[in-house]
Amino acid sequence: VQLVESGGGLVQPGGSLRLSCAASGFTFSRYVMKWYRQAPGKERELIAAITSAGGSINYADSVKGRFTISRDNAKNTVYLQMNSLKPEDTAVYYCNARNIFSVDYWGQGTQVTVSS
């Protein structure tokens, strides 16, 4: 089982990034996919979630209107489009997969730094 995030990096305030999380080793289409982030000295924060078929999406208030989660079950990939980035969005971003039996998988994380 693997979840591999990519797309992080350094971006200026107001910029955009698109994170990807490629899954393998499990039936991706049966899992709710989530994006979390963890800033230095802070707890891991759930920021976006999408159900297995994409029919329900939720966002944390801190990213609502700026971030968009999506998934492509044919490609076993979940995405996080991040627009209007702010310095406070700086964190390590993780993707998570969870099924109805509460089986959890995590990626290794990708660093996003928003700075001028």
Describe this structure in words.
Helix content is 0%, strand content 52%. It starts with a strand and ends with a strand. Strands 2, 4, 5, 6, 9, 10 and 11 form a 7-stranded mixed beta sheet that branches. The mean pLDDT is 97. The protein is mainly β and 116 residues long. It is globular, with a radius of gyration of 13 Å. The chain has no helices and 11 strands.
Largest beta-sheet details:
7 strands, mixed
Mean pLDDT: 97
**Based on helices, strands and strand pairing, what is the structural class?**
mainly beta
CA radius of gyration is 13 Å
Give the beta-strand count: 11
Shape: globular
State the end-to-end CA separation: 37 Å
Helix content range: under 10%
Keywords:
116 residues; mainly beta; seven-stranded mixed sheet; four-stranded antiparallel sheet; 0% helix; globular
